[in-house]
């Protein structure tokens, strides 16, 4: 049984992480428009994989039910997100998302579980899975760099909401304290990096919040990978809108840059389709 203070921070971490899981605005847009537009499935697949790894770690370690509850909830929510993406995505994006899902969440996770169950025992197994979680978390924590780079390039915080960065930072602090109190290095350590990135994002917000952003067409890359533009024989204008999203649970920050390429005629009502092809 956890110390009462550790239990309190664990409950608080569950609440905050649950709110972060529900944060992705792009999912709400997908459901409303019944189209994935230019969004990616990568953030949801990665978040699902991250939650699965943490559940496996919690199952082979004793007294880790607070990790199981939030990551179990996370698995369910991310699975729903992925299902919605597969329902509304165009055929090419569906195939790409399904391949990533099988490769990461079925094959890779299966190999990790199989090897550790067959080759390792007791505390050694816990240690190895713990370090696998830490390594994956460190890799995922590099994702906010793309958000910060976009803010610096555009001199605009439009794509980095302050309150999201704030709650991600609070989440990192809460889970660090929880890991420290239960003396779990593999829970506490990754959240140090999460805290640093969260603070950096809030500092950037304070620097650029009053500045007028650059023209997105000049600030954003000239081409977004995976986007499709179909030419037509009329005068057209192209608007490129970039957006970023980030989510973090148990110290694992998930961020993605999405590009929506909207192509429409200047004097006609028809519009052209675009596609953009998410580990938690």
Biggest beta sheet attributes: 2 strands, antiparallel
Number of helices in the DSSP assignment: 10
User: What share of the residues lie within helices?
Assistant: 55-70%
- Strand neighbour order, sheet with most strands: 1-2
Strand proportion, as a percent range, falls in: 5-15%
Radius of gyration: 20 Å
Contiguous low-pLDDT stretches (5 residues minimum) are 215-249, 251-280
Structural class: mainly alpha
User: What best-fitting shape do the alpha-carbon axes yield?
Assistant: globular
Order of helices and strands: HHHHHHHHHHEE
List how many beta strands DSSP finds: 2
Round the mean pLDDT to the nearest integer and report it. Answer: 75
Number of structurally distinct domains: 1
End-to-end CA span: 28 Å
Family: Belongs to the SWEET sugar transporter family.
Protein name: Bidirectional sugar transporter SWEET
Transmembrane segments: 6-27, 39-59, 65-88, 100-120, 126-147, 159-181, 187-208
GO cellular component, one term: plasma membrane
Task: Write structural notes for this entry.
The chain has 280 residues and is mainly alpha-helical. The chain has one domain. Helices cover 64% and strands 10% of the residues. It contains 10 helices and 2 strands. It has a two-stranded antiparallel sheet with strand order 1-2. α1 runs antiparallel to α8, α3 packs antiparallel against α4 and α3 packs parallel to α5. The chain is globular and about 50 Å long. The C terminus is likely disordered. It holds the Pfam family MtN3_slv. This is Bidirectional sugar transporter SWEET.
């Amino acid at each position: 049984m956890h110390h009462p203070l550790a239990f309190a921070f664990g409950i608080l971490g569950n609440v905050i992480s649950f709110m972060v899981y529900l944060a992705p605005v792009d999912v709400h847009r997908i459901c409303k428009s019944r189209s994935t537009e230019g969004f990616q499935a990568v953030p949801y697949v990665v978040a699902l994989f991250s939650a699965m790894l943490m559940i496996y770690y919690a199952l082979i370690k004793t007294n880790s039910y607070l990790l199981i509850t939030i990551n179990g909830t996370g698995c369910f929510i991310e699975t729903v997100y992925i299902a919605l993406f597969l329902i509304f995505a165009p055929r090419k994006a569906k195939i790409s998302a399904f391949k990533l899902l099988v490769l990461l969440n079925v094959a890779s996770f299966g190999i990790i579980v199989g090897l550790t169950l067959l080759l390792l025992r007791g505390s050694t197994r816990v240690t190895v899975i713990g370090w696998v979680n830490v390594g994956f978390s460190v890799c995922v924590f590099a994702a906010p760099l793309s958000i910060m780079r976009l803010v610096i390039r555009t001199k605009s915080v439009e794509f980095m909401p302050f309150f999201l960065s704030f709650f991600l930072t609070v989440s990192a602090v809460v889970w660090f304290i929880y890991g420290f109190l239960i003396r779990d290095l593999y829970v506490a350590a990754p959240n140090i990096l999460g805290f640093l990135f969260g603070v950096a994002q809030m500092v950037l917000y304070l620097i650029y919040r009053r500045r007028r952003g650059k023209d997105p067409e000049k600030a954003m890359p000239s081409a977004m990978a995976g986007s499709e533009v179909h030419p037509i024989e009329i005068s057209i204008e192209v608007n490129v809108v970039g957006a970023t999203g980030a989510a973090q649970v148990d110290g694992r920050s998930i961020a993605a840059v999405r590009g929506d390429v909207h192509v429409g005629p200047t004097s006609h009502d028809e519009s052209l389709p675009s596609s953009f092809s998410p580990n938690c």
